[in-house]
Amino acid sequence: MLVLATLGAPERRRLRGRRGPVVQGAEPEPVPTSRVTVITPEPFPDRGHGEEWLERLRAGGDPRTHVEAAVSVVNRALHAHRAARADPSARDVTADQALVVRVGFGGGEAVAEGRFEQAWELPGGRRGAARRSMEAPDERFATLLGARESVLVCEELLLRARADLNAGRTREAALQARVALESLLSELDGALGGEGRTALEADRKPVGEATNAALRGPPGEELDEVVKSAVGRMEAVLRTRRLASA
Predict the structure, then answer these.
(1) What is the pLDDT of residues 192-213, one digit of tens each?
(2) How far from 242 is each of 150, 177, 195, 201, 204, CA to CA, in Å?
(3) Among candidate residues 108, 125, 129, the one with its CA nearest the CA of residue 117
(4) Structural domain boundaries of the chain?
(5) Most buried residue, 28, 69, 90, 193, by most Cβ within 10 Å?
(6) Whose CA is closest to 161, among 90, 210, 97, 216?
(7) Separation of first and last alpha carbons in the chain
(8) In the beta sheet, which residues pair with residue 5?
(9) Cα–chain-centroid distance for residue 82?
(10) Which residues have a Cβ under 8 Å from the Cβ of 237 and sit 6 or more positions away?
C-alpha cells in the first residue's frame, strides 16, 4: 500500500491579476514536504514479533532491502503519474534524496498518518554505500558549465537506460540501450581502442535482438541479461573516458 501526504507549508494564496506582486526582497519561500509511506500487506502476528524483527534489523540486518523495495513502489507510482500527466519532468527518486528514511511497524491507519509503534530512523550513511570515484565529477561539472566540453548524447541516453534497468522497466531499457549504443559508437568513433570497439560492435546484434523483442513484449530473462551487460560495458567505456580527461 502506498500512502502520499503533503506536509509543513502554508497554502499560498492565489496571486491577484496576472502581473504578480511587487517585492522588495527575495525571502525564502515556504515549501511543502512530501511524506511517502509504503506499507506491506502482511502484518506481524503481534507487537512482539514486530519488535523482534526491528531489533534484528538494527542489530545487524540490512535495511537497504526494505528501503529499495519501498523506493521501487514509489517509482512505479511516479512512472504511472508521468504517463498519466504526460509530464516528463516527474523523474524517479532514490533513497538518498529523502530528508528522512524510517523503517518500523504499527497499526495500518496510524502508520499511514506517520505514527509508528516503533521505528528506526536510518542514518544517512546506511541508506546506500557512497561511491568513491576518481572521475572528478565536480571538475567536469565546471568544465561543462564553462562550455569547455559538451555532454555527449550517448551519456544522457545511457543514464536513461540505467534508470529503466534499476526500475525494472526492461522493455524501455532495451530500446534506450540500442540508441545509446549507436550514439556511443558514432560519437566516440575516433577515441575507442581496438578492444573497446570490438566489444561494443559485438553488442550490436544481441542488443538489436533485445530491442526487436521489446517492441513485441517483455524481452525475457536471457535478453534482459544481454541489455544489462551491454549497458555495463558502455558505462565502463564512458568511465574510462572521464578518468582519462580528469
Answers:
(1) 877 778 999 999 999 999 999 9
(2) 12, 20, 18, 21, 23
(3) 108
(4) 2-7+33-126, 137-245
(5) 90
(6) 210
(7) 45
(8) 35
(9) 14
(10) 184, 188, 192, 196, 200
Three-state SS sequence of the chain: CEEEEEECCCCCCCCCCCCCCCCCCCCCCCCCEEEEEECCCCCCCCHHHHHHHHHHHHHHCCCHHHHHHHHHHHHHHHHHHHHHHCCCCCCCCCHHHCCCCEEEECCHHHHHCCCCCEEEECCHHHCCCCCCCCCCHHHHHHHHHCCCCCCCHHHHHHHHHHHHHHCCCHHHHHHHHHHHHHHHHHHCCCCCCHHHHHHHHHHHHHHHHHHHHHHHCCCCHHHHHHHHHHHHHHHHHHHHHHHHHC
pTM equals: 0.78
Q: Of 57-61, 91-95, 131-135, which gets the smallest average pLDDT?
A: 131-135
Span 62-83, pLDDT tens digits: 888 899 999 999 999 999 999 9
Q: What's the grid cell of residue 197?
A: 570497439
CB 171 within 8 A of CB 217: yes
Q: 44: which residues sit within 8 A by CB, 6+ positions away?
A: 50, 53, 105
Report the alpha-carbon distance of residue 3 to residue 37 in Å, rounded. Answer: 5
Question: How big is the chain, counted in residues?
Answer: 246
Residue 84 has a CB neighbour count (10 Å cut-off) of 9
